């Protein structure tokens, strides 16, 4: 049986399957197993679990590995995803729902995807990305906890409105999509798959 150091003819890590390759043992998995009793706990719980999944996909990697790009011409990397999701959290919860006039974290106004541009293998860049991501999640969690009605609406920059309920669903979708990207990025780095 091969291990993660074995590579295929294309010089990529060999995939590692089965329980031996799980990111955490099932009994140590910080994510929930459902059991939500109402709409709020379900939406908040699923979003929390996807946030934790992103952390699991990035666990135990150094700065260079986190910054490693997928395939040309893509600029996508795990570090870029962390930075992108910090920006998404900030834009939706601070700028839209809370109405705060705060600048974007990584992209100049009017531009997109700046989070991927400077996602370089520097430990200070990695530390800042995680710090920003966690700060934006903390703000979002406080805002959601302090808002009694999931139907409360906020106006977006295009004049349309979005409810907190719709926003939570959108964030679950955003994380689900990017956790799929993270699966592929992590497998390309060291062959780890699953969870």
Question: Which descriptors would you attach to this protein?
Answer:
mainly alpha, 6 helices, disordered N terminus, single chain, Putative damage-inducible protein DinB, MST-like, DinB/YfiT-like, 195 residues, two-stranded antiparallel ribbon, Four Helix Bundle (Hemerythrin (Met), subunit A)
Described by the principal axes of the CA atoms, the overall outline is globular
Question: For the record, what is the CATH homologous superfamily label?
Answer: dinb family like domain
Mean pLDDT across residues: 86
Secondary-structure-based class equals mainly alpha
How much of the sequence is in beta strands? under 5%
- Under CATH at level 1, the class stands as Mainly Alpha
CATH topology: Four Helix Bundle (Hemerythrin (Met), subunit A)
Contiguous uncertain segments of 5+ residues: 1-8
What's the order of the H and E elements? HHHHHEEH
Major beta sheet summary:
2 strands, antiparallel
How many strands appear in the DSSP assignment?
Answer: 2
- Rg over CA atoms: 18 Å
In DSSP terms, counting alpha (H) and pi (I) runs of 4 or more, how many helices?
A: 6
Tally of discrete structural domains: 1
Q: What distance separates the N and C termini?
A: 21 Å
Helical residue percent? 40-55%
CATH architecture: Up-down Bundle
Order of strands in the sheet with the most strands?
1-2
